[in-house]
Task: inverse folding
C-alpha cells in the first residue's frame, strides 16, 4: 500500500490523482476485510482517534466510528451539544483540550469552511475533514468514486451528473474535484438559484433540465435539499422543487440506457427522490453507505502511516 | 525652535513645491523658509532624501473608543497615526455608544485634545448607526462632527439616505457612505468569484457595491444641488465598475468624491485559499482588473483620497474559523508605505495630495500649505526608504503586512507645537 502526499485529509483539492487511487485501492482491500466473519484488523492498535463533531451527523459519525473500531483504534466522541462549545470556548481550545488527553488523530465536522485547515496549521495531530460547512466533504467524494468504480469501472470518460442544491453542498464541491481528477465528465444540474455563479470555472457543465441531464449521464448523484442550510429563500417551496427537479422511477425507466442512482443521504423521500426511485434497481445508495466504512478505514490507515 | 535642513517640499498648492529648502518652525508656526537658514538655538532635523508635506490626514479610522478599548483606544490610535505620518484623523462613529450624540463627540474630542494628532469625529447619520432614526445632525456639527456617516454600516434605507443628503447641505457637511447592498452580501466572507466558489465560501459580489453607488448617484442627481465641494463621498470603493461609475458622475458635474483603502491595491482574492483571517477585510480583496482600475482612478483623479481604514481587531476576534473572524486590518502605520510600494504610475506629489489636500477639502478642514506664517502641521518622510513593518503602536496586530518590506515611510510629524518621531 502506497503513501499519501499529505498529512491531513482536508479536502480533495489537496490530493493528487495518485493519492486518490491509493485510497480507493486500499479501500477495496478493507472492503474484503469488513465482509469477513471477523471484521477487525489490528492496524491502528494504540492509535487514539477523536471524532469531534460541531454539527449534527448520524451516518458520517457512525461510519467513521465503525471504520476506526474495525482498525482497532481507540475511539472517543465529542459532539457540540452539551459541550464546552456552548460555553464559548474556541475551537482551538476545545481541540487542544482533547489532544492533551493524548489523542493522535482528529476527525472533525464543522460548519465553517476551512475550519480543518485552520486546525491542521495549529495542532500536531492528523486532521480528517468530515465536512466543513459548504466547502468540502472529502470522504464522501471518495466513497462515491469508489462506488462508481466498483459498479462501472474506471471513471475516465464517464458522465456523472450532480443534481440538486449545488450552492450549499460540500458533497458537490468535493465530488467535482474528485471526479475531474479521475478524468470523468461532470455536469451539475439544479434550479438556477442553487447553482453558484462561477461553478463552470471548476470545469463542469451546467444544466437546469433534470430529464435531459438524466439522459446525458451514466451516473446521477442526487443531493439532499439542505433545508437546514438555507438561511434565506432560494426557491418557492419543496412542493415545486419536487415537481420540477425531483426524480422518480418513471423518469429512470424512460431513459434509453440504465444509469446508476446515488445519494449521499439522508434522503428527503418525496422531495429530491421518490421512494420508488430511491429503492429502485438502479439505486446504489446502500452500497455507498457500506463502502463509506471501507473508504474511511483506508483514509485513517494511510494517514496513520504518515 | 526647530530647523529642518535641506528638505524637499511636496505641496502642490505651495509656491515652494518641488524645491529643496530649509524650514524654520517656531511656536507651532512656519517662521521662515529659505536657503542656509541660521538659527543657532534650534534643534536640527536633516537627512538624505527627506521630503516634507503638510501633515497627512486619514479620513477613516476605527478607534473602537468608547466601547472596545481592548482593541484600540483614542490614545493608541493617535500614537499609531503619528507613527504612520498622520497629523489628523477622522474617526468612524461605530463605537459603543456610537458617535450619535453631543456627549460622545465631546468625549472623543476631549480625550484626544492633548495629542499631536488632531482627532475629528465623524457623526453618525442614524442613532446607533442602525439606519433607522436620524441623529441631530445640526447639533452634532456644532459639537465638532466634520462629516456624517454610519461608518461600516452602509445606509440601506433609500429614504434615510436621500433625506440625510438633503439635510446635510444646511450645515455644509459631506455624507459618507460605504457602498454595500446588504441583501446581496448576507453571510458573505470574501470576493464572490472563482476563488470563493473553490473554497465553498459565501461571496461579497462586486455588484453589491456597484448597485448602491448607482442608487446613491441617482439620488445625488435628483437632489440637484450644485456645489464646489463634494456632498457625497463613497468610502473604500473596490471594484472596476465602481471607479467607472464615479468617473462618469464626476464628468457629469455631480458633487461626489471617493476614497480607497491603501491595502486594497496590494492583494487579490486568490490569497484567501489558506483561510488566513489577516486577509479578511471588507470590502474584500478582489481581482487584478479591479486593482488596475483603482490605479487608473487614482491617476486620473476619480479617486480623491486614500485612507488606512484602520480597523484594529484583537487576537480573539481574528484567530478563529474564517467565517467567525471579524473583518479588518490595522493600517495607520502602513497606509503610505503600502500605496507607495505598489505604486507604478503616481508621482510623489499625487500620492501626497491623496493624503493631504483632498481629505481636507472633503472633510471641510482648514487647508495647510507650506508657506511662511502658516501653522506647522507637517509630515517629514522619505519616499524611497525601505523598511520592514515589524512592530506597531496599535493595541491590535491584525495586519497582513507584518514582516513585509515596504518602500517609503514617514519620519517625523509636527503639529500643535509638538514634534514626534515616526515608527
Result:
Amino acid at each position: 500500500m502506497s503513501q499519501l502526499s499529505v498529512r491531513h485529509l482536508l479536502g480533495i483539492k489537496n490530493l493528487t490523482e495518485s493519492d486518490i487511487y491509493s485510497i480507493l485501492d486500499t479501500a477495496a482491500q478493507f472492503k474484503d476485510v469488513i465482509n469477513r466473519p471477523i471484521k477487525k484488523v489490528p492496524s491502528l492498535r494504540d492509535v487514539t482517534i477523536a471524532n469531534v463533531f460541531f454539527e449534527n451527523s448520524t451516518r458520517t459519525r457512525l461510519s467513521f466510528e465503525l471504520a476506526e473500531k474495525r482498525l482497532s483504534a481507540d475511539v472517543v466522541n465529542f459532539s457540540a451539544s452539551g459541550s464546552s462549545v456552548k460555553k464559548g470556548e474556541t475551537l482551538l481550545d476545545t481541540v487542544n483540550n482533547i489532544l492533551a488527553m493524548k489523542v493522535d488523530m482528529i476527525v472533525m465536522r464543522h460548519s465553517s469552511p476551512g475550519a480543518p485547515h485552520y486546525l491542521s496549521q495549529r495542532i500536531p495531530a492528523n486532521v480528517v475533514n468530515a465536512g466543513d460547512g459548504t466547502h468540502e466533504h472529502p470522504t464522501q467524494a471518495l466513497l462515491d468514486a469508489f462506488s462508481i468504480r466498483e459498479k462501472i469501472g474506471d471513471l475516465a470518460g464517464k458522465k456523472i451528473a450532480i443534481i440538486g442544491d449545488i450552492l450549499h453542498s460540500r458533497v458537490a464541491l468535493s465530488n467535482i474535484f474528485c471526479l475531474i481528477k479521475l478524468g470523468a465528465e461532470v455536469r451539475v444540474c439544479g434550479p438556477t438559484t442553487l447553482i453558484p455563479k462561477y461553478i463552470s470555472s471548476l470545469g463542469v457543465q451546467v444544466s437546469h433540465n433534470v430529464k435531459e441531464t438524466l439522459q446525458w449521464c451514466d451516473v446521477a448523484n442526487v443531493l439532499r435539499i439542505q433545508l437546514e442550510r438555507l438561511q434565506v429563500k432560494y426557491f418557492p417551496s419543496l412542493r415545486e422543487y419536487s415537481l420540477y427537479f425531483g426524480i422518480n422511477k418513471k423518469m429512470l425507466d424512460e431513459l434509453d440506457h440504465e444509469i446508476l442512482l446515488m445519494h449521499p443521504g439522508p434522503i428527503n423521500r418525496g422531495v429530491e427522490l421518490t421512494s420508488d426511485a430511491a429503492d429502485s434497481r438502479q439505486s446504489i445508495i446502500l452500497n455507498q453507505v457500506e463502502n463509506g466504512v471501507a473508504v474511511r478505514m483506508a483514509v485513517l490507515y494511510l494517514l496513520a502511516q504518515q | 525652535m526647530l530647523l529642518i535642513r535641506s528638505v524637499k517640499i511636496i505641496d502642490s498648492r505651495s509656491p515652494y513645491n518641488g524645491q529643496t529648502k530649509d524650514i524654520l518652525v517656531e511656536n507651532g508656526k512656519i517662521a521662515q523658509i529659505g536657503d542656509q537658514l541660521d538659527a543657532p538655538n534650534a534643534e536640527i532635523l536633516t537627512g538624505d532624501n527627506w521630503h516634507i508635506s503638510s501633515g497627512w490626514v486619514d479620513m477613516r479610522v476605527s478607534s473602537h473608543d468608547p466601547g472596545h478599548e481592548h482593541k484600540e483606544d483614542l490614545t493608541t490610535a493617535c500614537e499609531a497615526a503619528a507613527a504612520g505620518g498622520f497629523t489628523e484623523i477622522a474617526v468612524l462613529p461605530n463605537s459603543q455608544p456610537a458617535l450619535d450624540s453631543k456627549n460622545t463627540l465631546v468625549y472623543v474630542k476631549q480625550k484626544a485634545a492633548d495629542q499631536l494628532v488632531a482627532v475629528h469625529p465623524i457623526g453618525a447619520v442614524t442613532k446607533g448607526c442602525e439606519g433607522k432614526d436620524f441623529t441631530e445632525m445640526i447639533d452634532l456639527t456644532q459639537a465638532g462632527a466634520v462629516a456624517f456617516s454610519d461608518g461600516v454600516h452602509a445606509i440601506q434605507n433609500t429614504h434615510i439616505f436621500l433625506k440625510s443628503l438633503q439635510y446635510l447641505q444646511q450645515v455644509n457637511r459631506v455624507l459618507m457612505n460605504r457602498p454595500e447592498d446588504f441583501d446581496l452580501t448576507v453571510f458573505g466572507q470574501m470576493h464572490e468569484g472563482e476563488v470563493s466558489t473553490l473554497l465553498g465560501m459565501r461571496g461579497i459580489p462586486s455588484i453589491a457595491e456597484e448597485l448602491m453607488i448607482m442608487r446613491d448617484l441617482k439620488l445625488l442627481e435628483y437632489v440637484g444641488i450644485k456645489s464646489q465641494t463634494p456632498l457625497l463621498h463613497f468610502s473604500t470603493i473596490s471594484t472596476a465598475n465602481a471607479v467607472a461609475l464615479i468617473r462618469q458622475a464626476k464628468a457629469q458635474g455631480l458633487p461626489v468624491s471617493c476614497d480607497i483603502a491603501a491595502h486594497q491595491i496590494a492583494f487579490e482574492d486568490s490569497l484567501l485559499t489558506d483561510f488566513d483571517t489577516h486577509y479578511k477585510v471588507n470590502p474584500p480583496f478582489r481581482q487584478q482588473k479591479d486593482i488596475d482600475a483603482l490605479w487608473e482612478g487614482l491617476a486620473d483623479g476619480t479617486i480623491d483620497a486614500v485612507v488606512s481604514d484602520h480597523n484594529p481587531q484583537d487576537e480573539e476576534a481574528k484567530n478563529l474559523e474564517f467565517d467567525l473572524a471579524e473583518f479588518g486590518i490595522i493600517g495607520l502605520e502602513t497606509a503610505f508605505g503600502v500605496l507607495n510600494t505598489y505604486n507604478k504610475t503616481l508621482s510623489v506629489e499625487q500620492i501626497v495630495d491623496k493624503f493631504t489636500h483632498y481629505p481636507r477639502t472633503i472633510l471641510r478642514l482648514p487647508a495647510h500649505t507650506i508657506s511662511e506664517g502658516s501653522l506647522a502641521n507637517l509630515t517629514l518622510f522619505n519616499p524611497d526608504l525601505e523598511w520592514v513593518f515589524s512592530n506597531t503602536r496599535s493595541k491590535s496586530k491584525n495586519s497582513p503586512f507584518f514582516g513585509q518590506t515596504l518602500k517609503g515611510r514617514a519620519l517625523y510629524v509636527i503639529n500643535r507645537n509638538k514634534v514626534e518621531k515616526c515608527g
